[in-house]
Amino acid sequence: MAAQTRPRRLRHTPRHARRRNHRARRFGGRWPVAILAVLAVVGALISAQVRASVATAAAQPQLKTGAGKWVAGHTAFVGYYRALIGGKWVKVYCVSPDKRTPSRISLATVSRLHSVSATVTRELAQTLSAHGNAKTAGQAEAVSQALNYEIGNRAAVAHRARYLSPSVQSLAMRYVTEARRSRGGYRLGLHLASSPLPGQTGRASVSLRGAGGGRAATVRLSHSGNVSLPRAVRTDAAGRASFSYRTTAGGAVHVGATVQGLPPITVRTSRPSASTQRMLSWSPTASVRASATYRGRVAGFSERYECTSTCDGNPLATLTACAPANGYPSSITYRHGATAHRVDFAAARSRTCHTWRTTLHDGEVVTASWRFRTPHGWTAPIPAGGSFRVDCPPAPPVAVAIGYDCRSATLTIALGRQSGGRLLGLHNATAHRMVLVLEGARVGRFTVAPGATATTHSFPIVCGEGATVAVRAGVQRTNGTYNYGGTTRVTLP
Q1: What is the DSSP letter of 270?
Q2: Collapsing DSSP states into helix, strand and coil, what is residue 112?
Q3: What is the average per-residue pLDDT within 374-394?
Q4: What pLDDT, on a 0 to 100 scale, did the predictor assign at position 405?
């Protein structure tokens, strides 16, 4: 029996594998040595270029000289350097020229440099801020000389000046003088002379002063919506300016003032080692602000009333209010109990007064409020001073009874009333002290405290004396005085 052969299995070969096999068969199953050598050379060149780029970047100096001049046999540079900081080139100045130049630096902002005073730091800051961004070599040289003079390197400044033009050194000294007069640390003052009501005008003043005196500058003004004033004012050489403001509506008024572009009080400095130079650059300019707030104070009103025995606790009062000179009409509204009464005032150039008479009641609170009619309508009510509580309690009633025969009599008196031939003492349900006063043939003063009941008082009388007793009742007011009722006179038999 013939042997049977196993059918051959077909295998699927990917396309990229077929290409690889074809190349292998073409080169005898191996890469040619020449090709491998070329690849090795190319790889080495690329690696060398990468290493060279890294080495070049690392070796690239991050501090270069900028505008200025080498002096003293190319041993000192007077001008600004260019430092690569945060990916940007920044102008910096050396203030320790006797030390070696660093290869790279970083800057930090400080308000006082090590080993110098805050005043010197501010002078340096002013010079850097005003002139540090020099545009010419001469300007850069002058800034460098000025900074070293201010920080105390006077010998180095004098030595380097021999190699500089006289105009550069003269400009440097002008920078020094300017820094002493204009260094930072300014204060802005804002004063509002009055608190005008809506429709009235006031006068304000601003002042800008530093260590060297006043400064001319533009003061930007801001404000709330209920006042009108300029957008800006300009101070004079003494740092002073004034302006008018006008209240246009009610409520609190806010005014603000700002001056920008002032010399800073900080500098940007490197952190040098003991052997390397210190580099300085400028900080952004500074701003100062001031603010003031006021609320127009309205006039109060006055009251006058008499608490007499005839008013019985309901005095007739006269209320008086005066509107000051104002460009807007105004009104005052009085309120007591359920009563409200409005008095109108026209706009006037002088003070105007009006009175109102009304009957009040003991214990009532009388208030008033002003309103002003602006171009935007009436303002909200503004409470007026002068509010008060009516202090006029009615005097208590007095009851008197007399009993007598031919030989003797009895006088009976009480704060209260008579009912069925009897005297009923009054219960004092008020917060006021009451009194019963006897004068004449019988004298006495009897008090009834709040919450107590009046006592009946009896006095024996001998007939035929023909004497008279004056009786009156009173009540103590809140102010401590007494309001007395009418006097009752009893003639004895």
Answers
A1: -
A2: coil
A3: 93
A4: 64
What is the signed CA dihedral for 153, 154, 155, 156, rounded to 10 degrees?
Answer: 50
Q: How far apart are CA 359 and CA 18, in angstroms?
A: 120
What span, in angstroms and rounded, lies between the C-alpha atoms of 259 and 234?
A: 10
Statement: residue 479 has pLDDT above 60: yes
Q: Which residue has the tokens 């008479």?
A: 357
- Buried-exposed string 114-123: b where 16+ CB fall within 10 A, e elsewhere: eeeeeebbbb
The whole-angstrom separation of Cα 95 and Cα 118 is 16
What one-character-per-residue DSSP string does 140-204 give? Answer: HHHHHHHHHHHHT-HHHHHHHHTTS-HHHHHHHHHHHHHHHHH-S--EEEEEE---PPTT-EEEE
CA distance readout (Å), 187 to 57, 175, 239, 241, 259: 48, 22, 10, 14, 10
CA distance 258 to 263: 14
For residue 416 the two structure tokens come to 């209260």
Tokens 């001073």 identify what position?
A: 385
Q: What's the sign of the alpha-carbon dihedral 48, 51, 56, 59?
A: negative
**Which DSSP category does 300 fall into?**
-
Q: What is the pLDDT of residues 10-53, one digit of tens each?
A: 444 455 555 555 544 444 445 455 544 444 544 555 454 545 44
* Close Cβ partners of 294 (under 8 Å, ≥ 6 residues apart): 192, 195, 252, 253
Give me the sign of the Cα torsion angle 214, 218, 222, 227. positive
Tell me the CA distances in angstroms from 50 to 43, 44, 54, 90, 301, one per residue in order. 11, 10, 6, 29, 92
Q: What type of residue sits at position 431? A: A
**Parallel, antiparallel or unpaired: strands 482-484 and 365-374:** unpaired
Q: Which residue is it, tokens 């002088």?
A: 350
Burial of 26 (0-12, 13-18, 19+ CB in 10 A): exposed
pLDDT tens sequence across 221-257: 999 999 999 999 999 999 999 999 999 998 999 999 9
Token pair 């090795």 in the structure block, residue: 40
For 356, the token pair is 């109102």
Q: Which residue matches tokens 């009957």? A: 359
Q: Tell me how far apart the alpha carbons of residues 213 and 238 are, in angstroms, rounded to a whole number.
A: 7
